Amino acid sequence: MNQSAVCSKFKRMLNDEIAAGEFFQDLKLESALKKDLITPEGKQSMGLPVDAPLSMYDLTRPALEALPKFRFMYLVSLFEAFVQEYIAERKGISLDDLKNSLTNERSTWQRLNGHTSVGSTSYYNVRFVNWLLNELYSIQIQSVIETLTLEMGDLRKCLVHHGGEITKQDFVDGLKATCLQLGLPSIIGTKVTVTKKLMSIYIEDFRRILNLCDF
Predict the structure, then answer these.
(1) Would you say which domain of life the source belongs to (predicted)?
(2) How many domains does the chain contain in total?
(3) Residue 2: is its pLDDT beyond 80?
(4) To bridge 194 with a disulfide, which of 69, 129, 157, 160 should be the other Cys (CB 3.0-4.6 Å)?
């Protein structure tokens, strides 16, 4: 019988706030926008030929194509929040006390992995979370997720700080599975993005993690 209130909470949030939009809302929105044609007056106001076919979808396509990236950012934030709340729940402590309760584990991870991005003790770092949950509760999330999901923290950092461009060796090493999925070379200069295929994998993997952690 499932008992984790935190797991139940984040399952609902994942479905209601991310999956529903990614798998259903966008399709409906795209279909509606393609049917909403711009009037000749509207085209004229934009300096476009009045006889050129133009829909609201044509005008808003870049914004629609950016939606997976925005949802990815939110999903990674949800993952970070889940890990903190889940461990606090298991330990029976407040979120305020969580950081101090994990001092030894953080030090051990950094000693094992140095000062590279892999050694980060941020909860965005799925590799660290995988190790931490295994240390604390013998939960191996790596056993139920794709390798590229371990790279979400690196992808987030690459998108936020470098516009998706692989600018250093840390990203070359940290985004190999992601680049493979995208069909891109994992080399400096490659520009990565978040596709609907990637989001589908991330959503399903987050769901698997929640099911695995439920107790």
Answers:
(1) Bacteria
(2) 1
(3) no
(4) 69
Specify which residues 37 forms β-bridges with: 55
**With contact defined as beta carbons under 8 Å apart, do 59 and 38 qualify?**
yes
| Structure-derived torsion over alpha carbons of residues 201, 27, 15, 64, reported in degrees to the nearest 10 | 80
Domain residue limits at 57: 5-213
Q: What is the pLDDT of residues 154-183, one digit of tens each?
A: 999 999 999 999 999 999 999 999 999 999
Q: Which two tokens stand for residue 208?
A: 């698997």
- 105-135: b (≥16 Cβ within 10 Å) or e: beeebeeebeeebbebbebbbbbbbbbbbee
Give me 22's structure tokens. Answer: 């990614």
Query: Which tokens in the block code for residue 86?
Result: 């889940």
Q: At 165, is the secondary structure helix, strand, or coil?
A: strand
